[in-house]
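Students often ask why we bother encoding 3D structure as a string. The short answer is that it lets us treat folding as translation between two languages. Here is a chain of 560 residues written in the first language.
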Amino acid sequence: PLALGLYTVNAVYGDTITMPCRLEVPDGLMFGKWKYEMPNGSPVFIAFRSSTKKNVQYDDVPDYKDRLSLSENYTLSIKNARISDEKRFVCMLVTEDDVSEEPTIVKVFKQPSQPEILHQADFLETEKLQMLGECVTRDSYPEGNVTWYKNGRVLQPVEEVVVINLQKIVDKSTGLFTMTSSLQYVPTKEDANAKFSCIVTYYGPSGQKTIQSKPVVFDVHYPTEKVTIQVLSQSSTVKEGDNITLKCSGNGNPPPQEFLFYIPGEAEGVRSSDTYIMTDVRRNATGEYKCSLTDKSMMDSTTITVHYLDLQLTPSGEVTKQIGEALPVSCTISSSRNATVFWIKDNTRMQTSPSFSSLQYQDAGNYICETTLQEVEGLKKRKTLKLIVEGKPQIKMTKKTNTNKMSKTIICHVEGFPKPAVQWTVTGSGSIINKAKETKYVNGKFSSKIVIAPEENVTLTCIAENQLERTVTSLNVSAISIPEYDEPEDRNDDNSEKVNDQAKLIVGIVVGLLLAALVAGVVYWLYVKKSKTASKHVDKDLGNIEENKKLEENNHKSET
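And here it is in the second language, the structure alphabet:
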């Protein structure tokens, strides 16, 4: 490399400077010498080497004591390069007739330390010009330059907005530079989370290079421009009994710590932190809620609907009625939204609402009226009706001869609630073959059955008794030798009607046949009487007494 047309050696601070003597060694060389030139041009000799005696001598120059080395080819080496080594050095080869000189320029470079942003501001306020920090880089040679960056882009100076001052200080003992660049800046809200850094540009032996600092993010303070109110709830809807937490927030930095909350029905705002809690809310808490900054400069609002569900069942609880009575039942709903209502009887969902114009035993049971708001999680109400249908014992007795012709079965059909207790008594000879057997008690009905083998006519009495009344019914039963068949056991009402219809038909046929026989007898009697009259006329006309007697005998036989 050449500097001003001269040979230049670039050296790194602290390394060894090597300067070859760029002259050809002439014949008759006596010795070689190195010198450097002072700023005023006066020479200072530092090294000598004889070509004949091969000895090396170093001049007493304090700056180069123990640092020099001169080789046989007259190459000069200087250890531990310093900034003060930046001089013009000259190699001299001397003969008896001539002195040859060749200058070399030495340049020394020192890489600066990584820049640091020091004296950082604790926070930045918008719309204010303030010191952001100082970018410091040390021990550079030659001096470098410092540039500020925001989010990777160069910050150019702008009057009253971006103010940059660069200061360079030289260490007199080392000659190294320390550069300090201060940045004054007017931040905006958008500078929150912005990354600021600085870069030092310096020159090295191989050219221009840069070193970047670590990025720094500053806490940017800016005023609140908007207030927001929120309802913090575990679900999207609010129902009676829930707790409500209102949260008010401002978009400033730092965020406001106190607010005014405005509750429906209260004229003045309630001063609180950023949250306001209401517990066990009722339906009258429905309304518009607001919050604002303490100076009332900004406000936001939200509407809260507290859902409710009321259910009124009439009658409810345990109700006792008599069979055949009417019982009106109503389930009334009052709710914040349309509710779904359904009925359950004895754990089975009903298709229609219960209605009782004439209570029957099968109407008894546990009724539940239940309602829900589908849109509100967990909002459900139910009430119960335990219906008891009471009735005095009612008895109907039937009998039949068993197929073996050896016994008869007598059945006592009983209705009533509470369940009646049944007793049997027998009047007359005969014995009860087995104990009474009862069918299952369902819907207030059951049967008690006994089997007997009476030797003569007997009377059986069935006694049914509950808390309401004692009922007694008797039935005459013929001796076992006389078959008896009553209505079949366990028949239903439809079968009873069919049997009754069949009985009526049979009776009608029998009566019809009897009437027909009677008419035929009358006709026959008139015919015989007419025949007798004719016979009498023949007797008179013929005068035949014997024939007349025969006719009378024949008529007598016919009449008989």
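Translate back mentally: The longest helix spans residues 493-542. Keep this in mind for the problem set.
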